[in-house]
Design goal:
heterodimer, A: alpha+beta, nine-stranded antiparallel β-sheet, 9 strands, B: mainly alpha, de novo design (two linked rop proteins), 6 helices, elongated
C-alpha cells in the first residue's frame, strides 16, 4: 500500500485540501450552469411566444438550436472540474491502492481487445469507454477500464428504415495475465439456461453457437451459476481447477452482478455488468465526502483484487 | 394403415440409429479421455529420471525414496502388469514424488538451483495436467454411464454389450471457503 497508515489519514493529508478547492469550483460552476440553464429557458420561452406560428418557417428549429446550445454550454462549464477531480483525486487514489497503478481518465481498453476476447457473440458497432487503469501487481500484468459496447439493429427498409442499439456490455472490462500457459480458448458465461430450465437447460447449452464444446464440470454450485464452453476438454479443466472454480464463484458474489470470463492466449478477460458510472464526481454533492471516496477505493481494490482473488501471482507451473 | 406402419417403423429405425451413434460417440469420448491421461503419465515418466539425476548429488538422506521412485517408474512402464496394478503403482508414484518435493525444503542449495526449479515447475505442470485429464475422463465416464443406464438407450447398450466404467478416484481437492458477501453496491 503506501506510507499512510490507513485511507482516512491519506484522505486528510493528501486529498482534503484539493477536494475542498474542487468543491469551490464545483459550486461556482453550478451557479454558472444554473445561469446558463435559466438564460436558455428564457430564450426558449421567448422564441415560443414571439415567433409567429402561421408562417412557413418551422418554429421548432430555433427552439431546438437554442436548447442545444444551452446544454453544450453547461457541459463545457462542468467539464473542467470533472477533469480536475479525475486527474488529481482518482489518480492519487489509484496510487494509494497500488503504487504501480497508472490511471488515464480518457483511456479505455481498445475495441480490438474487447472483440478478441470473444465473450459476446453480437457484433460490436458502437464502442466507447473511460477510466483506464494499468499496472503490474506482483508478477501479474493487469489493465481495466469502463466500457460501453453496443450492437446496431436495423429495422425495416427504405423509408421505414430505423436504427436502434442493443447494449452488449455496460460495465467493466479487465484483462489480466493468467498464471498458466494454454493454447485453446475456454469461456465461462453466466448460466441463464440452466437457472431457468434446469436439466432441460443443459440440453439447450449443448447448442453452443460456435463457442466449442460444452464442458461439464463436477462442482454443482459452479455449474448452477456458470456455463463453460471450450475447445479442449482437458485444457479447460487444466485452467478451471476446483480451487479456481471456488474463487470465481466468490468473486462473482463480491460483485453481485453478471460476470463473464474468457481464457485466451494465456490471459484472462473478464467482463462485469455495471450500470453505475464509476470514478465520477457528483455535481450536486460535496466532493470532500469521505465515504464516497472510500467507496471509489473499494471498487478500485475490488478490480485490482482479481489478482489475489484468482490467485494469479502463484507461479509454480512452467509460466514465469 | 400401411403408411402408418411404415412411418412407425421408420421412426423406430431412425431413433435406433441415433441412439447407436450417440453411444459409440460417448464410448469414444471415454477412450479419448483415457488416452489423454496416458499421454500425461508418459510425460511424467520422461521427467522422473531428470529429477532423480538433478537431486541425487544433493540429497544424502533420501536414497531410499529415490530408489523407490526409480523402481516404481520401471514397474509402471513394464508390460507385464494389469491395469489395476498400474493404477496402484501410479498412485504410489504420485505420493512419492510429492514427498520428494517436500524433502527438497531441507536443501537450500537444491532449492536455489535453476535446473531444479525448472524441473519442479515442469513436474507441477504435468501433475496439474494429469489432474485435469482425470477429471475430463470422469466427466466422459459419467455421461457414458448415464446413457447406458437410462431408458431407452440402455436397451441398445445391452445389445452392444456396453458395461459401466469406473471413475478415477481423485483425492478430494482442498475446498477453500472464501467469504462471499457482495462487497460493492451496484445500485
Amino acid at each position: 500500500m503506501s506510507r499512510y497508515g490507513n485511507f482516512r489519514e491519506f484522505y486528510e493529508k493528501e486529498l482534503r485540501s484539493d477536494l475542498e478547492s474542487i468543491d469551490l469550483r464545483r459550486k461556482e460552476t453550478n451557479k454558472k450552469a444554473l445561469t446558463a440553464l435559466l438564460i436558455t429557458a428564457i430564450a426558449v420561452v421567448t422564441e415560443l411566444v414571439l415567433i409567429p406560428g402561421d408562417t412557413n418557417f418551422p418554429k421548432a428549429v430555433p427552439v431546438i438550436v437554442t436548447a442545444f446550445a444551452g446544454l453544450v454550454a453547461i457541459g463545457i462549464v462542468s467539464e473542467s472540474y470533472r477533469k480536475e477531480y479525475k486527474e488529481k483525486i482518482i489518480a492519487r487514489i489509484a496510487g494509494y491502492a497500488d503504487e504501480g497503478l497508472v490511471y488515464s481518465p480518457e483511456g479505455f481498453i481498445p475495441k480490438e481487445e474487447f472483440i478478441r476476447s470473444r465473450i459476446f457473440n453480437l457484433s460490436c458497432d458502437k464502442y466507447s469507454g473511460e477510466d483506464y487503469f494499468r499496472g503490474r501487481i506482483g508478477k501479474t500484468d493487469i489493465e481495466f477500464s469502463e466500457v460501453t459496447a453496443k450492437h446496431r439493429n436495423i429495422n425495416g427498409t427504405g423509408k421505414n428504415r430505423s436504427e436502434d442499439y442493443t447494449i452488449i456490455l455496460k460495465g467493466l472490462f479487465i484483462i489480466a495475465d493468467f498464471n498458466k500457459n494454454f493454447k485453446t480458448h475456454t469461456i465461462v458465461l453466466p448460466d441463464t439456461a440452466e437457472k431457468l430450465f434446469g436439466k432441460f437447460g443443459q440440453t439447450l447449452q449443448s447448442v453452443s453457437f460456435g463457442r466449442g464444446e460444452l464442458i461439464r464440470l463436477e462442482d454443482p454450485r459452479f455449474e448452477k451459476e456458470f456455463c463453460v464452453y471450450g475447445e479442449d476438454q482437458v485444457e479447460a479443466r487444466y485452467i478451471l481447477t476446483p480451487s479456481l472454480m471456488e474463487r470465481i464463484l466468490a468473486y462473482r458474489k463480491k460483485w453481485n452482478s453478471r460476470v463473464y470470463l474468457s481464457f485466451l492466449d494465456s490471459k484472462v478477460y473478464i467482463a462485469i455488468y455495471m450500470y453505475r458510472n464509476l470514478f465520477e464526481l457528483r455535481p450536486f454533492k460535496p466532493a470532500a465526502d469521505y465515504s464516497f471516496l472510500e467507496e471509489n477505493l473499494r471498487f478500485l481494490t475490488l478490480l485490482t483484487g482479481i489478482v489475489e482473488d484468482l490467485n494469479l501471482n502463484t507461479r509454480i507451473w512452467t509460466k514465469e | 394403415m400401411l403408411y402408418a406402419i411404415i412411418a412407425a417403423v421408420a421412426i423406430l429405425l431412425i431413433s435406433a440409429i441415433l441412439i447407436f451413434n450417440s453411444l459409440i460417440r460417448r464410448k469414444n469420448d471415454v477412450e479419448n479421455a483415457f488416452a489423454s491421461i496416458d499421454v500425461m503419465l508418459r510425460k511424467r515418466y520422461d521427467l522422473i529420471p531428470k529429477i532423480v539425476e538433478a537431486v541425487k548429488t544433493y540429497m544424502t538422506y533420501e536414497r531410499e525414496l529415490l530408489t523407490e521412485i526409480t523402481q516404481l517408474r520401471i514397474k509402471a512402464l513394464s508390460q507385464a502388469i494389469t491395469p489395476e496394478e498400474r493404477v496402484i503403482i501410479e498412485n504410489r508414484l504420485g505420493q512419492q514424488l510429492t514427498s520428494l518435493l517436500v524433502a527438497v525444503e531441507n536443501y537450500p542449495d537444491l532449492k536455489a538451483s535453476a535446473n531444479f526449479l525448472h524441473l519442479q515447475g515442469t513436474l507441477n505442470e504435468v501433475e496439474e495436467q494429469l489432474a485435469a485429464s482425470r477429471r475430463a475422463f470422469n466427466a466422459a465416464v459419467t455421461i457414458y454411464n448415464n446413457s447406458i443406464e437410462v431408458f431407452p438407450s440402455n436397451l441398445m447398450a445391452s445389445m452392444m454389450n456396453y458395461k459401466r466404467r469406473t471413475l478415477f478416484e481423485i483425492p478430494a481437492a482442498k475446498r477453500e471457503e472464501i467469504s462471499a458477501k457482495p462487497s460493492v453496491n451496484m445500485a
